[in-house]
Amino acid sequence: MMPLREALTPRRDRAGTLGFDVVSSFSLADPSAKAAFLSLATATATVTLTPTHKLPAGPAKALKQASEVAVGETIWLASPAAGTLAPVLKITKVVADGLHSPLTKHGGWPVVDGVATSYNSAAVVARNKYLLPLVEAVCPSLGRLVVAAVNPKPMHYIDGEVVEPISSLEVAAAVAVTAAATLGVRKITARK
């Protein structure tokens, strides 16, 4: 297994260009979670996603939840050639183990089982293209704290850390401790 900072995932950018992107430490992975999925099958690829996971569909590359894709609609494949549209021939409901949501650091669409996917809405992916590298460089722990404050469920990160939801009071206390520590470091540095 390679370190997260070096992990790459095939991805397709919004223009449809196939390339590689760094997997963010904010990617989610809970291999033991049992969940309901939809398998979308084309003639050459089958991707299995949660019903709410997004993927670009149709010539306009509009992001849709897997549950909104119908038989006959087209989805984007990474192979045999970059930018290939293929019709969905069959949709199957399955229950399986493992929930994964790879976030790309620079805004690409992760390619899963040969199919372009998206971890969120186009607006969130566009924002995260700038925000993720900054937060990971400056203070990834604070970023996870913010996510814990606004998300009502535990977050299982790709590095194995599980962050439980926290209350507003806990957030205020953590921010106060962080601010105090930062100010203390500045005072010590200023004395030298």
Question: What is this structure, in a nutshell?
Answer:
The chain is an alpha+beta fold and 192 residues long. The protein has helices at residues 122-138, 140-150, 168-191, and strands at 8-12, 18-22, 28-41, 46-49, 54-57, 62-65, 74-77, 84-87, 90-101, 109-112, 115-116, 155-156, 162-163.
How would you describe this protein?
Helix content is 27%, strand content 34%. It is α+β, with helices and mostly antiparallel strands. The protein folds into two domains: 1-138, Hedgehog/Intein (Hint) domain (Endonuclease - Pi-scei, Chain A, domain 1), CATH 2.170.16.10; 139-191, no CATH class. The strands form five sheets. A four-stranded antiparallel beta sheet has the order 2-1-10-11, with no helix packed on it. A three-stranded antiparallel beta sheet has the order 4-3-9, with no helix packed on it. Strand 5 (54-57) and strand 6 (62-65) form a beta hairpin. The N and C termini lie far apart (43 Å). The relative contact order is 0.18. The model is unreliable at 1-8 (pLDDT under 50). It comes from Emiliania huxleyi (strain CCMP1516). This is Hedgehog protein Hint domain-containing protein. Residues 13-119 form the Hedgehog protein Hint domain. Pfam families: Hint.
Features:
192 residues; alpha+beta; Endonuclease - Pi-scei, Chain A, domain 1; 2 domains; four-stranded antiparallel β-sheet; three-stranded antiparallel β-sheet; elongated
The strands making up the biggest β-sheet line up spatially as 2-1-10-11
Secondary structure class reads alpha+beta
Q: Biggest β-sheet: count, sense, barrel? A: 4 strands, antiparallel
Tell me the CATH architecture of the largest domain. Answer: Beta Complex
Helix percentage range: 25-40%
Terminal Cα separation, in Å?
43 Å
Mean pLDDT: 82
CATH class call of the largest domain: Mainly Beta
Number of domains: 2
Shape: elongated
Radius of gyration: 19 Å
- Give the topology string: H per helix, E per strand: EEEEEEEEEEEHHEEH
Protein name: Hedgehog protein Hint domain-containing protein
InterPro entries: Hedgehog_Hint (IPR001767), Hint_dom_sf (IPR036844)
Domain Hedgehog protein Hint: 13-119
